[in-house]
Amino acid sequence: VLGTLESRGVLRRMSDMLEVLMKRMDILARLENNTDFHKGDETRFPLDRFQPAAGLMERIQAIAQNVSDIAIKVDQILRNSLLSGKGVDGRRDQCEVPRDPKYPDCAGKVEWMRARWTSDPCYAFFGVDGTECSFLIYLSEVEWFCPPLPWRNRTAASPSPPPLPRVQAAFQSDLAHLLELIGTGKESLSFMKKRIRHLAQQWLRAAQRLETKLNGRQRDQKHILIHIGFLTEESGDVFSPRVLKGGPLGEMVQWADILAALFLLGHSLRVTVSLKELQSHLGVPPGRGNCPLTSPLPFDLIYTDYHGLQQMKQHMGLSFKKYRCRVRVIDTFGTEPAYNHEEYATLRGYRTNWGYWNLQPTQFMTMFPHTPDNSFMGFVSEELNRTEKQFIKSNKVSSMAVVYGKEASIWKGKEKFLAILNKYMEIHGTVYYETQRPPEVPAFVKNHGLLPQHEFQQLLRKAKLFIGFGFPYEGPAPLEAIANGCIFLQARFHPPHSSLNHEFFRGKPTSREVSSQHPYAEEFIGKPHVWTVDYNNSEEFEAAIKTIMRSQVDPYLPYEYTCEGMLERIHAYIQHQDFCTTLPSPPLPPKAKSPAMQSPPNPLALSPNATHLVWSPSSRQDPHSWPPLDSLQVWVSEPHHTCTETCRRHGLVCEPTFFRFLNKKEVFLQLSITCDSTESEMNHLYPAVAEGVHECYLQKEPLLFSCAGYNTKYRRLCPCRDYRKGQVALCRDCL
């Protein structure tokens, strides 16, 4: 019966059933990964370790592909028989594939359409009916692989709507409308709305201060879609059911703060936590996601996460590539350029189940400023006024400690230093349990169970010490504790934890080495508020406890984690970050035609002490450059240092957007570096010099400019900049 309508329908239904089966197994894979989740306060949960079913998934995918291929061949046989009998009204012969060098892919795409147009209903939605003419109309008017057909009425294609008139953004003074936009139906949404209400007055005061600081500066209102992918049912949404059971809250804290900041800055928002809503807002045609959107994207910016990014790619067809420059990805642990560049990651062994998106690395936005290649988004902690700070100081209990971590598994194997701590302090825990006290928590610990946020804050305001057991990594809670007058004690990791030696980081798109449970607290705050010690050294641990009990500290909150600091940062990003406009490369000086002709002066000049390069005061500023170029300094790294470390050692921050200004042979010469040869290659460590052999290397692929990474063979050229006190994301003149 091959070639009949019945067999074609059966094969199509089989293909659909297999596709549904794969989707359900994908959800099971995510749920299976629940054991890998960041079990404390925060995480970006992975999809990358569902190994037992990997082979089965591959076999199902292969069967589905075979069934789909057979169905397509049946379609071809049926279609050819019809065409030979009826000629399809002669329409097939009326259109010939144009041979236009401006459209080199046209013929190949038409061939693909002949074989595959029935593989997705979206093609029929756009009018494809199996004829040559319908293929060419689709490929020239919906996609852009073929030239427009001369006989087509130009009005037949859907005209692009005129651009919406730009209105100016105005700071908002009432958060009620935002709470309506967030919606209902999930515990996670209720948590976020409760947080926004709790911090409302601080947000509003901060918005007023920033408005005064900007002094009436004009700001275009942006149309912004916020799609929180990890809360969609299609991604498994394991977070919402665990909000009331001690589950991770770090992402929801951050998303609540992002929503508040974007709204108060006066931008027009749409919020989605379901795939159906996402498809509706984007204008996704019916089908399986192979076709472009039905109309131009109505949003200037889209804030999402890795799950949302994957969903958009699956359903936007070619439009994803067209509009991905508008996406901002909220990414807790960061994505380094070596993992982001698909070809390079595949060739050099950096490919993981995350990463390889070929975005500009600064489109990824992190929770802490640990990866300068990415943008630092952050979150906020509650600020205290002077009276509250004084009250907290006078009511501290010097012998009271609170343990960081709400899950019992975190306490396992910690008996030794808990016994030492118990000699000096009363230990309090907030470990979740339903009926029986968790056996991992010793009897001498006063366990309060899971506390609402305001009660947890009250506990921190009494406690002298907030102590971490090494996990969870990099969450909001230590900053909240320090802001409430606690001293934070944490473990030093030796060797540092990374994707090379620690299961939690394995598969994440970063090689970053984590030297403690909370590197930001260690590096950016430090003593007396933060103590980082070797927990395996009982004497060092006990000495730290004794010193902390005698110490007096004021509540402290870095400016970048205040409401005003976050508003300031997001405002600057929205105003200045543009990933859709390709910046021209700095022009190379022309070769001199005669000895009398001089090359244009190099915009970089040697510093007065001849240790590094700076932007020459006499050089013209590039109006497209942000941060401003006069904040640039070029330093040469030591062989065992990343550019991130190199800049930090000079009191600066690595600024990847400046790499393009120092990716030139002349810069090596200015720094008195001898280059016997200079090559241009793809390598995330370049520009760099292999000093032993005097070989210099320039970067061939701009997406691989990276502050991260080192090799003892190379000394790297590092672009550094200054930064505002308490606001590392912005240079002194960046606002």
UniProtKB/TrEMBL annotation:
Where in the numbering of this chain does the Glycosyltransferase family 18 catalytic domain appear? 122-720
| Pathway(s) | Protein modification; protein glycosylation
Cited Pfam families: Glyco_transf_18 (PF15024)
Which EC number(s) does UniProt give? 2.4.1.155
Q: What class of enzyme is it?
A: transferase
Its membrane topology is listed as: Single-pass type II membrane protein
Compartment(s)? Golgi apparatus membrane
Answer yes or no on keyword Transferase. yes
Gene Ontology biological process = protein N-linked glycosylation
Catalytic activity annotation: N(4)-{beta-D-GlcNAc-(1->2)-[beta-D-GlcNAc-(1->4)]-alpha-D-Man-(1->3)-[beta-D-GlcNAc-(1->2)-alpha-D-Man-(1->6)]-beta-D-Man-(1->4)-beta-D-GlcNAc-(1->4)-beta-D-GlcNAc}-L-asparaginyl-[protein] + UDP-N-acetyl-alpha-D-glucosamine = N(4)-{beta-D-GlcNAc-(1->2)-[beta-D-GlcNAc-(1->4)]-alpha-D-Man-(1->3)-[beta-D-GlcNAc-(1->2)-[beta-D-GlcNAc-(1->6)]-alpha-D-Man-(1->6)]-beta-D-Man-(1->4)-beta-D-GlcNAc-(1->4)-beta-D-GlcNAc}-L-asparaginyl-[protein] + UDP + H(+)
Gene Ontology MF annotations? alpha-1,6-mannosylglycoprotein 6-beta-N-acetylglucosaminyltransferase activity
Q: Which PANTHER family match?
A: ALPHA-1,6-MANNOSYLGLYCOPROTEIN 6-BETA-N-ACETYLGLUCOSAMINYLTRANSFERASE B, ALPHA-MANNOSIDE BETA-1,6-N-ACETYLGLUCOSAMINYLTRANSFERASE
State the name under which the record lists this protein: alpha-1,6-mannosyl-glycoprotein 6-beta-N-acetylglucosaminyltransferase
Which gene is transcribed and translated to give this protein?
Mgat5b
